[in-house]
What does this fold into?
Amino acid sequence: MKLLYKILIWIAGICAGIYIAICCFLYFKQEKIIFPGSKIPVAYKFDFPGPFHEYTIKVADGNALSACLFTDPKSKGLIFYLHGNGGDLRSWGDVAKYYNALGYDVLILDYPGYGKSTGHLISTQQLFDVISTTYAFIRHKYPENHIVILGYSIGTGPAAWLASQNHPQKLILLAPYYSLTDMVQKYYPYLPGFILKYHINTYQYIPHITAPVIIFHGDIDEVIYYGFSLKLKHYFKFGDTLITLHNQNHQDIDQNPDYLKNLRRMLR
It folds into this structure.
């Protein structure tokens, strides 16, 4: 019995050691997991079919952000597009044409560590500072009541926070999460919540948003649980909307015909 007890203690110790090692690895590598940005040379020349202008936006920490403004000749306003956690402007720039076709200019920003943007993300506050600086840049070019903030996937939480701090025309969220902590607990329930350094709580921001909030979410989303949007609905004010995109997964919501039809109606 003593031998068996020692073996069990030994096995438990090994398992605990492996678990702690995994938690430590995820804690120190979470930026690469949550924000796996791809870098491109500063000299790289973007090539998009429509008219666009490339900007470099300086931020307080000394880094420079890469952004592209895609324009429409008869623009009714601007959509500030906060993209998902994969890719960079080379791929995300392609979505601009769908919004230009609706009569809106589109500004797409690469987060620190993405594309030509320098530095790398180290905190939630830094991410919020980056998008606030970019929003101030936009407001020098467009009246705020002509600005729509749009977030996709990982960009939905920062987009909701930004809308709660300002007064845009609308906030549009594509496949949002309830909070990053909830994301971790749903998909990795064996991990303790405290290892997450990025606390982005979409549900806390929505009650403080004065602009109309519009959520689009696919009911077969395999990356961000559709039920998160149903939970966010509890924080809606009068006039906010959740539109379910049937048979839509996480990718390419911008191309979904029902999404574009509803968006055309809402962005008149």
User: Anything to note?
Assistant: The first strand starts at residue 52 and ends at 58.
